[in-house]
Amino acid sequence: MTPNTARRRETSRRAILTAAFDLLQETGYAKLSIEGIAARAGVGKQTIYRWWPSKGAVIFDAFLMLSEATEGGPPTLPDTGDLAADLTVVLRATVEEMNDPRYEQPMRALATEIALDPELAAAYAERLDGPLKEAKRQRLRSAQQAGQIADDVDLGVAVDMIWGPILNRWLHRSGPLTAEYADLVVSTALNGLRPRRSAE
Amino acid sequence: MTPNTARRRETSRRAILTAAFDLLQETGYAKLSIEGIAARAGVGKQTIYRWWPSKGAVIFDAFLMLSEATEGGPPTLPDTGDLAADLTVVLRATVEEMNDPRYEQPMRALATEIALDPELAAAYAERLDGPLKEAKRQRLRSAQQAGQIADDVDLGVAVDMIWGPILNRWLHRSGPLTAEYADLVVSTALNGLRPRRSAE
C-alpha cells in the first residue's frame, strides 16, 4: 500500500465512522442502515461491508475512535484521598453524560448490540470497558490500601455495585436518573444495607 | 363478537405468542420476523400487524402470557426472617434462570427492545417489572421493620444495588454469572464497602 492509498483509506474510515455516529443521533439505531451510512459518508456500501461485518461493528469502532480522540491515554479516576467525594463527582458526571441527548442514541445502540452479539461483547470488554473498569478498580484499591474499604471486599463486585445501578436505570429507563440518585447509590454502596453498630 | 369468534381469536393470539417465543429460542432476535412468526403460527401476517405494532410488542406479550401462566397471582419473595439467606436463595435462582438456554434469547430480545423503545419500557415497568420490584421492596421493608436494614436506607436504591449487578453482568456478558457471584453481591450489598468498626 502506498502512503497515499493508506491516507485515503484512513480518510474514508473516519468519514464512515463519523457518518455512522451522526446518523445514529439523528435517526436512532432501528433506522440506521449500511446504505444510509455509505450515502452520508460519500462511499460505496461495498467499502463498508469490506471493513465491517455488521452495523454493530461500525458503531463499536465509532465509539473507539471517539474515546481515543477525547481521552488520549488510559482512563483514570480522580483520587483526592476522599473516596466518597471522588465517587460522587464521577457518578454525577456519568449521570450527566447519560442524560446528554447527543450520546443517547449511540450509547443505546452500542449497549443493545453488545447484549445480542457475544463477539462484539468480547471486543467491548477488552478494548473499551476493560481499561475503564481497571481504572475504577484501581481507585477502589487505593481506597482499600488507605483503610476506607474493608480488606475482604471483592473490588470487581464493588465496581459492579457502584456503577451497575446507574447503567441499569439508564438502559431500562426504570426511574429518573438524577444527581440525587447518584449520591444515594454512593452512600448506600459504601455503608451497606445493615444498620451500623457504631458511628464513624 | 360471538363467543366462537372470541375463542378463535384467543386461540390465534396464543398460537402467535407461542410461535414467537419458540422462534426466538431457535433463531435469535436479529433473525426473528413477523413473516416467520405468522408462518409458524399458521396465520396471515396481517393478523399479527393488526394486533401488534412491532416484533418487540409481540415478544412483550409473549412474556406476559408466560408469567401469568407460571405465576398465577402477584409475585412474592421468600420471607423466613433471615434476609441474607432469603436473598441468597432468590439471587441464586435468578442466576440459574439467566443461565438457562431456553430463556437466553427471549430475555435478551426483551431487554434490548426495552432499551430502544420508551413505550415498551413503560409497559414493561408497569406490567412485568413493577409487580416484581414491589415484591422485592416488600421483602426489604419487612427486613427494615425487623431491624436488619438501617432505617435511612432507600429501598428502591437497595433493590437496584442487589439485582442490578446480576442483570448487568448477564446483559453485557461482563463476567461469569455464578452462584458464588450471587453470594458475593448479597454480602457486599448488606455489609457495604466501608470497614465495619464492630462485629455483629
TrEMBL record, chains A, B:
Keyword entries, A-Z: DNA-binding, Transcription, Transcription regulation
UniProt domain HTH tetR-type: residue ranges: 10-70
Record Pfam families: TetR_C_11, TetR_N
UniProt DNA-binding residue ranges: 33-52
Any one GO MF annotation of this record: DNA-binding transcription factor activity
PROSITE patterns: HTH_TETR_2
Protein name, per record: TetR family transcriptional regulator
Native source organism of the sequence: Micromonospora arida
